[in-house]
Amino acid sequence: MNNVVENLVMEVSDNMTDEQLLPIETGLNAFNDLMTGISDRKPLAVVIKNPTNGEVLGGMQGRTSLGLLFIDLFYLPSSLRKKGLGTELLQRFENEGRKRGCVAGFLYTINFQAPDFYKKHGWEEFGRIDCLPEGTSRIFMRKSLC
Q: What is the pTM of this model?
């Protein structure tokens, strides 16, 4: 083994700072940009705020990249559910993806979360992985945005 590899330290951690993790993100982004010739990754969020104080009450966050829309997190407090707000958030998120040139969307949800909500809005399951606790699974979904 050469000296460079022999002198490296490998660490397993659950408390790395954003600054410490930045070289992984920037390195992979630079590689992807080189390979594709495209650098279009952008974060995306649609939020619902308290009109009085501006506090974020819930919403959806994710990103767009290489023509794909990714939904990473979606949360509404129970007091705001069943009022059409989830549908409106999802539609605005998808529409922004389309404006950015996305041709498809991807997400995963858990079987006790919202797979039926997404199916109702045209998302289809394309994979499922069992996880814990027993009887639970992560459901991978996609939707054409064309």
A: 0.88
